[in-house]
Amino acid sequence: MHLQHHGGHQGVTGSCHQLTFSSGKSVLVDCGLFQGSDARRHPNLEIEFPLDGIEALLLTHVHIDHVGRLPYLMAAGFDGPIYCTQPTAKMLPLTIEDAIKIGFTRKERMIDAFQETVAKRLRPIPYHVWTEILPGVQIRVSPAGHILGSCYFEIDADGRRAVFSGDLGAPHAPLLKDPQPPERADLLVLESTYGDKCHDGREHRQQTLENILRKTLEDKGVTIIPAFSLGRTQELLYEMNGIFERIQQQSGRSIMKSVDVIVDSPLASRFTKVYEDLQPFWDAEAQHVLTYDDQPLMFENLTTIDDHDEHQSTLDYLAQSDLPAIVIAGSGMCTGGRVVNYLKRLLDRPTTDVLFVGYQSHGTPGRDIQAGRKSVRIHGEELKIRADVHTISGYSAHADQQNLIDFVTGMDSPPQEVVLVHGEDGPKKILGEKLSEHGINVR
């Protein structure tokens, strides 16, 4: 086996790895867009590596930094099958539509034609079942706990086993089954996003979120939550629903009518509907919730906004009103999308709170706001920051340092070699040192 990287090895975004077998044939694992400072280092989105011998594409999940270069890959001539989990196959069209609109075209006819081509290539496979994709090459997917449908891949070929972690999630994430380590790996390609950090437990995260909700009520302000349309938004809605339910049980009164929860993202609304269709893939806790609440991602004070006029009127309403509200909007790193308009209108108010629940890449406005600066430049405009800024790291959907160590050391036998990817230099270095202390060979 021979491993090559075409993105995601010198930063967090743009994941794309190629595994070549003794036959000369190979597979790609993910093909994502670069974001933040990674995008500035890789401004050319066209595929610059040869496609000779690449027989298949394996997708770990549908976040755009793992699948966003798929249109460019197919434009370059890739015509092989695309293997992924069943939930990923259902959600991929929404992400790909977004990726095409970002870099290719907004013409519906061309988007539909591309989607039809992708649909013909998709090969959804079940969890925990070995599947032969080439003569002498088998793959198996297991839950990664990152977003619904996420997986890590085991690849058996040439008498060896390679494991690609994709993005691993933290244990006890809402809606998601916890990742369990594989039995073994000769080669482990491991993400390292939070290789230098440890998250708070879920109970602490829930309490912090509840405290911010209560602060919003007391301040009669607006809490802005920049969030990815897929994964984070649905987890937050699930957690908020649980918090509202718990407060009502404890106090005997509902606070739902006292605060508006606004999801201002057409794409997030569409993903939420798909999440509801995929309830059979939810974890045991969520399955139990479904026995007494058949719509845990919906509640009476939740408003979803689709069209632009409604977005503008909501902005005006919140800017002039003293009624408390929580706004969930994209993009998650504040690089664009509707969240930017909320920041422009409300970031300079002391009654505003900004809550980060996802990873913020270097070079993004989200990272600058999170760092505690007094101002931030977004789309050429310098915005003063008077809002309170909070971070709840556990909802980032990435495993922390201890989770990653447990994933490696939890194997029946240690991996012969670990290659760290999907991380900045600092976290990668620290995680590598920690793994080396456990006798793991890291490069």
Automatic annotation (TrEMBL):
Domain Beta-Casp as annotated: residue spans: 233-369
Enzyme class at the top of the EC tree: hydrolase
Source organism of this protein record: Stieleria varia
UniProt GO molecular function: hydrolase activity; RNA endonuclease activity
InterPro entries named in the record: Beta_Casp, MBL, Metallo-B-lactamas, RibonucZ/Hydroxyglut_hydro, RMMBL
EC number: 3.1.-.-
Protein name per UniProt: Ribonuclease
Transmembrane segments: none
Domain Metallo-beta-lactamase: start-end pairs: 13-228
Pfam assignment, any one: Beta-Casp
UniProt keywords, alphabetically: Hydrolase
Superkingdom of source: Bacteria
PANTHER family cross-referenced by the UniProt entry: CLEAVAGE AND POLYADENYLATION SPECIFICITY FACTOR FAMILY MEMBER, INTEGRATOR COMPLEX SUBUNIT 11
Lineage per the UniProt record: Bacteria, Pseudomonadati, Planctomycetota, Planctomycetia, Pirellulales
Gene3D superfamilies noted in UniProt: 3.40.50.10890, Ribonuclease Z/Hydroxyacylglutathione hydrolase-like
